[in-house]
């Protein structure tokens, strides 16, 4: 067994599937580790230019706040799809101009905090520092969609996440978020908001269709050192003909995936970074799991003061004001 270089002596100890200890490094180092578990080589061959895109006139901050205060016309069919498939992709949640403004802002926030050499760049908790990001992360429009999809009155924020997959960066391994988040409820989802049109070559988020597909891989051993878990999930899904939705995202299209949804993402084979704002929300009243593991990263940063078994309701987990059509 080759020891994973991103792990400390403590997190590397035990068998390859032993994740019982808590993570003892930062969340950016957590992402470096997690991305190293993806199977397959880094992309080769020349990177391609994505198609040109004109987002039109750029809205002001106030116009974006106003846009995101209006309810999204979510249909019963879309809610049913989320429940059956474990994810749903919704067109036109943001205007192309708002997407472009958020991309510019996240780029600045990433560039001031992240090593430019890192292929998969991340930053969390930006909503505490930046008004425009806060408007998007706590928006009634996205809060309303999230609450309706989860079938709950109101949701709280777990964290925001800027994710930039740089040109040439490799795959995201297959995983499901209930493995990550130390939240003791299936009523948890992530709004994955790509901040540019995202063609297949850029590595859009891709989803295994079906709320129960996790049962097919429940016996696979997680591998904290290498790529065998990711490879194993791919092999089972292929053998069982699990449908994978890996299509492109238009500007403003947003996916919502539940905590048990298996998902992955391809490499970015384009010359442009794939920038995403990924916000995770959970049903009000949710508790911390009894024993968070190293796969939860530095979770105390996101829910300070909430200990295992306790309800999560810290000031960093505000309730969103939902608006529903
Ligand atoms: O953006 C990616 O490649 C992975 C993101 C992800 O897994 C998530 O937001 O749940």
TrEMBL record:
<protein>
    <submittedName>
        <fullName>Phytanoyl-CoA dioxygenase family protein</fullName>
    </submittedName>
</protein>
<dbReference type="GO" id="GO:0016706">
    <property type="term" value="F:2-oxoglutarate-dependent dioxygenase activity"/>
</dbReference>
<dbReference type="InterPro" id="IPR008775">
    <property type="entry name" value="Phytyl_CoA_dOase-like"/>
</dbReference>
<comment type="similarity">
    <text>Belongs to the PhyH family.</text>
</comment>
<keyword id="KW-0223">Dioxygenase</keyword>
<dbReference type="Pfam" id="PF05721">
    <property type="entry name" value="PhyH"/>
</dbReference>
<keyword id="KW-0560">Oxidoreductase</keyword>
<dbReference type="GO" id="GO:0005506">
    <property type="term" value="F:iron ion binding"/>
</dbReference>
């Amino acid at each position: 067994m080759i020891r994973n270089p991103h792990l400390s002596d403590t997190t590397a100890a035990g068998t390859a599937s032993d994740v019982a200890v808590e993570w003892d490094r930062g969340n950016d180092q957590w992402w470096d580790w997690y991305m190293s578990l993806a199977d397959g080589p880094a992309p080769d061959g020349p990177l391609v230019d994505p198609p040109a895109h004109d987002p039109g006139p750029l809205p002001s901050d106030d116009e974006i706040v106003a846009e995101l205060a209006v309810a999204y016309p979510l249909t019963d069919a879309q809610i049913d799809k989320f429940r059956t498939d474990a994810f749903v992709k919704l067109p036109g949640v943001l205007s192309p101009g708002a997407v472009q403004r958020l991309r510019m802002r996240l780029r600045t926030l990433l560039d001031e905090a992240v090593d430019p050499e890192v292929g998969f760049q991340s930053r969390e908790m930006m909503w505490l520092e930046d008004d425009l990001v806060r408007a998007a992360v706590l928006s009634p429009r996205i809060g309303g969609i999230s609450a309706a999809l989860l079938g709950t009155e109101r949701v709280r924020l777990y964290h925001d996440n800027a994710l930039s997959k740089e040109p040439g960066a490799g795959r995201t391994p297959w995983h499901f978020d209930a493995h990550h988040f130390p939240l003791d409820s299936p009523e948890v989802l992530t709004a994955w908001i790509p901040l540019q049109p995202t063609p297949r070559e850029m590595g859009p988020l891709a989803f295994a269709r079906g709320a129960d597909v996790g049962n097919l891989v429940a016996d696979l051993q997680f591998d904290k050192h290498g790529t065998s878990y990711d490879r194993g999930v791919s092999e089972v899904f292929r053998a069982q003909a699990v449908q994978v939705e890996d299509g492109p995202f238009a500007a403003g299209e947003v996916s919502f995936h539940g905590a048990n949804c298996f998902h992955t993402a391809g490499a970015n084979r384009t010359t442009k970074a794939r920038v995403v704002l990924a916000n995770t929300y959970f049903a009000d009243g949710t508790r911390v799991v009894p024993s968070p593991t190293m796969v939860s990263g530095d979770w105390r940063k996101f829910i300070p003061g909430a200990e295992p078994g306790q309800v999560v309701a810290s000031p960093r987990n505000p309730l969103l004001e939902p608006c529903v059509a």
